Amino acid sequence: VRNILTFLGFSILLSSCSILDSDLKVKVDSGWLLGSEESGVLSFKGIPFAASTEGMNRWRPPQRKQPWKEIRSAQDYGDYCPQIKRDTLWFELGKTSEDCLTLNVWTPKNSSVSQLPVMVWIHGGGYLQGSGNIPRLNNPEFVKQDVVLVTVNYRLNVFGFFAHP
């Protein structure tokens, strides 16, 4: 629950930050992000909300992501979390790694509303498979209805739900 509140807070922060239209840069707690724009929708993909879960962090609660100094590209999805069961179409899965705790955010470029509602989509898959990165499931058309859309990648199977039946 704490992790969900963390990324919800992060997404709300991102939705309220200032955007420099000329270069699609936004400032978040960890540093600057460079997003992209298509058909009036701004997207910021692969935004890390926690440190990598590799090595010493594998069985620990998510650790805070260290701030970055350079502008970080947020134009591509982050890595997929490791999955045991793969019913997801093979061509929809990109690189898989334990450095996969990321958010994807879409927001309208121009909105008449100053504070937009945030719609968070947490993918299904029985805690075994899935991703917030699957393009056919991420529909930025929602954003054209004046909402901010957030999808999330979270640890799956034994890496996140070791005690789950």
From TrEMBL:
<dbReference type="InterPro" id="IPR019819">
    <property type="entry name" value="Carboxylesterase_B_CS"/>
</dbReference>
<dbReference type="InterPro" id="IPR050309">
    <property type="entry name" value="Type-B_Carboxylest/Lipase"/>
</dbReference>
<dbReference type="InterPro" id="IPR029058">
    <property type="entry name" value="AB_hydrolase_fold"/>
</dbReference>
<feature type="domain" description="Carboxylesterase type B">
    <location>
        <begin position="24"/>
        <end position="163"/>
    </location>
</feature>
<protein>
    <recommendedName>
        <fullName>Carboxylesterase type B domain-containing protein</fullName>
    </recommendedName>
</protein>
<dbReference type="InterPro" id="IPR002018">
    <property type="entry name" value="CarbesteraseB"/>
</dbReference>
<dbReference type="Pfam" id="PF00135">
    <property type="entry name" value="COesterase"/>
</dbReference>
